[in-house]
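Subject: sequence -> structure tokens, single chain

Hey, anyone have a minute? Need the predicted structure for the following. Not urgent.
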Amino acid sequence: MPDFHNELIPYLKKYFGFDRFRQQQEAIITAVLNKDDCLVIMPTGGGKSICFQLPALLFKGTTLVISPLIALMKDQVDGLNANGIPAAFFNSSQSAQEQQAILDSTHKGELKLLYVAPESLQGLSPILYEEYVSCVAVDEAHCISSWGHDFRPSYQQLGFLKASLPQTPIIALTATADKATRQDILAQLQIPEAKQFLASFDRKNISLEVRAAHDRVTQILQFIEQRPNESGIIYCLSRKSTETLVEKIRNSGFKVAAYHAGLDFDSRNKVQEDFIFDKTQIVCATIAFGIGIDKSNVRWVIHYNMPKNIEGYYQEIGRSGRDGLAAHALLFHSYADVIQLQRFASGATNEEVQLAKLERMKQFSEASSCRRKILLSYFGEYLQADCGNCDVCKNPPQFFDGTVIAQKILSTIARLKESEATGTVIDVLRGAQNTNILDKNYQQIKTYGIGKDISWNHWQHYAIQLINQGLCEIAFHKNNVLRLTDLAKAVLFNNTKVQLSQPLSKEEQMAVRKESKSKPINENSLFEKLRQLRFQISLEENIPAYLVFNDATLKEMESKKPVSSEAFKEINGVGQRKLEVYGEMFINEIKAFVETVPQKKKKKKRKSDTALESYELFKVGKTVEEIAEIRGLKPNTILAHLEKLYHEGKDMDIYQLISKEDVAKVAEAKKELQDPEGLKPYFEYFKEEVEYSTIRLALSVIEREKIL
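Reply:
Had a minute. Here:
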């Protein structure tokens, strides 16, 4: 197999801003470039997209990306274009002319990536040939499987792709898929020999917490008030819950919106866009919200109600902390939620599977052992040590040596030949004489009745802990039977010790865990100044703030304080195009901050003072270039100083800085574009031939002189 390492790293840095790959990214990309089919299971925020986006740059032709939602496509395409990668999406929201233009671009080989929903694939029939399509990526691949937690029938038509494009590699990607779902994905896509890559599901940066669901609204308000500037999502089961919460949160002074199926398309789209653009801080939503949203600075997720399965819970909490910084997942658990979810599952074609997975979610909520161990063991990954970043680890229950109890349970599972579910295992242990036990002659099993001194509920509590610790697992697609894992052998045959906890009393279950508060935000910190600059740029260019730079990149800028292009380019997340487009503005912001730090003990130099210095030099006849040389700054920085002061009402001959022709040109564009939001529409209107600084200055002149 060819080694692409030396070829890949320059592309990784130039287009994505990273110096090294994460987890299994390089191995996956190499397999795709070798035209191998692949199944990639990688957690949200783990870097799945790069696994097909980077190979697309090296392939001749277009990589076709199957994606479930229009909002997800737009988000991904905006991010790719911001990185200088030619990409587009094709869906029903576009006119026939727009769709034909995309087909023409693909014919000419101008697009590297083309996103499409499964329902719109038929419209791409003119280009579904191997001379045009270099690779097919099926994103959110769990949607193809009825075993998956978000099954979409439209995904089941995708099996024809391998038959139509037999030499084209197919890469299927998802954040959450248990064993049954993985097997189904391979079968449905007709790629049974695909290479499988199972990355670690461990999102160490997300703190996990479960609380009893009494007085949820008060608890949520307290939680939010301790995180005043952080973005978050609250998931609810009903529309009414979202609307009730929104009203109470808004009354507490926060920017919040509801998102549910009762809203029309335009209203839902506006809520999503306002959240992505940081105009709305909090969204209270039904589970329909958030699939594929690549917003990297969501700092917390709250589940007002218990999710119906662990896959859904894991995917939803994964929408926080995508930038790798600390995030918090808070789940409220109540018996009423369990009853309601059981009703929802009743009558479904896969009712038994849904109920079994709901029971597993309930067990997670009631657990008294490390919650991260439970999550990871569900997906077949086992931690040896507790995580230290969940409520159970931070407030641990009292444990006892439960080795003998564990051996009794595991031995019974083995003697039942791993063919029975939890209830039957417990019935055997307690020596039950019901029809199921007697008909199958289980009273003859050696462990029959050895646990009659322990109550049925306590046995269930212990069995759940063994599942959570990865000593046994539930085979959902095999009638929920209990099966032993490799870890069980050490307990059964090597006497490896097992620690168990006693069931918590009702009073202990109702106790609220100690609140972990976020650190107070320093409005004068470099991070906050860079964040404000990023927000301003995002408004001007009409793109989400995190597409400029994510929070982790800003944190690294704050730490390393790069004041040259060379140093700035070394920051993770800074690629060549972002260096060219944004580098100067961020470097100048960092320089201004660095200059003020030593002067704090004397007189703190305000940001406005530096603009006034430029203004005074301009007033005595110095040109922009001369001022820049005198002050050791870039001409664009001086121009920004003068534009800012002119906009604020300072007296100056503005036409020394911009021609009347340029002002008239921008005024005409403003009229034709019907007063668009941000600077990007103007930039595109002028076919990128007029600089942002000129457009910004012209708009200030138009506003101040009331030209229109």
